[in-house]
Amino acid sequence: MGCFPLFSTVTLFVASLFLLISCSCGVTPAVLATICSQTQNQEICESILTSDPRTSSADLPTLSLISLELTMKQASDNYRSFTQFRDNTTNPSLKNEFSICVTLYKDMQDKLKAAYLLSEQRKFKDITELGQLTTLAYNCENGLPSDSPTAAITEDMLLTSQTAISVNAYIAT
């Protein structure tokens, strides 16, 4: 009877230690490299994912959420930028093109919210509309003059989208 409290204390300690160890194992650098090798720029993809401190301890489902959150942030930032460009330009043609971009980025935000909900439910195979993000970003940029100041933010959107696409495709397989 006297050994029982010691046994249960040791068992509890070992169980706690196991839980601590199992929770601290995140996606390995090798897995990140595999995921990001499917994008246009592996180094930037890895940089995007590791910009969030949670990535180092994230499991794959959490990495899906992180990648979608980062893409949602980029889409929101771009939405705000295109709204400002639209509101500040006096050129009617450019105002129209920026308005189209605002609509396209709103569509992206809606697709990302839907993907995020599916990711929360761990329905990774149902996340099928992320590929449309790059098409929408290109459609926006292609409607603008070549000297438009938006090329850099569009590239950021494309790279962040590709990262989320690759993460979620990897998890779905």
Q: Short summary of the structure?
A:
The protein has 173 residues and is mainly α.
Topology overview:
Blueprint: H1 3-24, H2 29-36, H3 42-50, H4 60-88, H5 92-120, H6 131-142, H7 151-172
Helix pairs in contact: 2-3, 3-7, 4-5, 4-7, 5-6, 6-7
Domain Pectinesterase inhibitor: 27-167
Keywords: Disulfide bond, Signal
Family: Belongs to the PMEI family.
Secondary structure tally, helices: 7
Element-by-element helix/strand order: HHHHHHH
Mean pLDDT: 89
Strand content: under 5%
Structural class: mainly alpha
Distance between the termini: 52 Å
Largest sheet geometry: none
- Level of helix content? over 70%
How many β-strand runs? Answer: 0
Rg, nearest Å: 21 Å
Give the overall silhouette: elongated
- Uncertain segments are 7-24
What does the model show?
The structure is a single chain. This protein has helices at residues 3-24, 29-36, 42-50, 60-88, 92-120, 131-142, 151-172. It is elongated and about 55 Å long. Residues 7-24 have low confidence and may be disordered. With 173 residues, the chain is an all-alpha fold. Helices cover 76% and strands 0% of the residues. Helix 2 (29-36) packs across helix 3.
Main features:
173 residues; mainly alpha; 7 helices; 76% helix; pectinesterase inhibitor activity; Pectinesterase inhibitor domain-containing protein; PMEI_plant; disulfide bond
